[in-house]
Amino acid sequence: MRTFHSPLQRRHAPEKELHNGAFVPFAEHPGRIDAILEALGPAEAPRDHGEEPILRIHPRAYVDFLKSAFGEWRAAGRPGDAGAYVWPVVGRRPLTLDRVDARLGQYSYDASTPIAEGTWEGSYWSVQSALSGLDAVLGGEAAAFALCRPPGHHAGADYMGGYCYLNAAAVAAEVAIAAGRRRVAILDIDYHHGNGTQDIFLDRGDVFFASIHADPKTDYPFYWGHADERGIGAGEGATLNLPLPRGTAFPAFETALERALTAIAGFDAELLVCSFGADTFVGDPISFFALETADYAPIARRIAGLGLPTLVVMEGGYAVEALGANVRSVLSGF
Ligand code: OKP
Ligand code: ZN
Q: What positions does the domain Histone deacetylase occupy (predicted)?
């Protein structure tokens, strides 16, 4: 399968993250890419599509913030990566403030998303990889793989969170619509709910969002991904959340997958974007499902059974020693 990735994506490399009360090495690190490319072989360099497709989803002010935050942080004399430490509570009046500390809080919802020197560049090229994969699929490939990193599914239109800054899957879905696909489905099978993607398309009737993930009652991101979130307005019924308990292994995952696929088939989509996270793997250090490497191939075969042109976008997966084999397994099924 054609695979797209830019070495510039490595430029995003924060040092540490706040995890359960301690600063620990950043789990979403460039070594994840090495592991995947070692298993797959070299990837194609993405074409540069510029900022225009990104701005279809993310407002200019947020993009400018991502570009300038690290420099402002350094200019303020700060060490390390830029990170928020104060957030506006929901309902606070929307002040427009200049200071980088205020903007870090305004444009994020958690402390898992430090901005390092290369964060903009890495995120930009991650989206370009998705757009190049989309080009391949729009050009007639049955499926293509975008080796996105950093991931994107927690990023909303104007906020970062959960290691995500720009939402590559959302940008690709929107560009597919702009290219004339009337209806697009997004299937998110990362361990964590894709709250950013859901938020972006929540009120849209032309993009179906289905997600299988750990129950947010027990797992990040807690505030989104509950089964009663089903879309609003024109998007009513075009969001499907299938939360599963910790410990879920292949049989229960497959049952949820069949439900998601039935819903997507009924939506009559012309293209599928699959946000794939390998953090459903039994050995994932920050997640608690129990899928095995061999399970990813039949999961992909069932998804491919929809018969839709499919862009696979990489999201999470932190068991680096198994990551290459897990990605190879899922791509073999497509
Ligand atoms: C990103 B993706 C809790 C820290 C939570 C955020 C996890 C983001 C996962 N100790 N960190 O969906 O794989
Ligand atoms: Zn995840």
A: 28-332
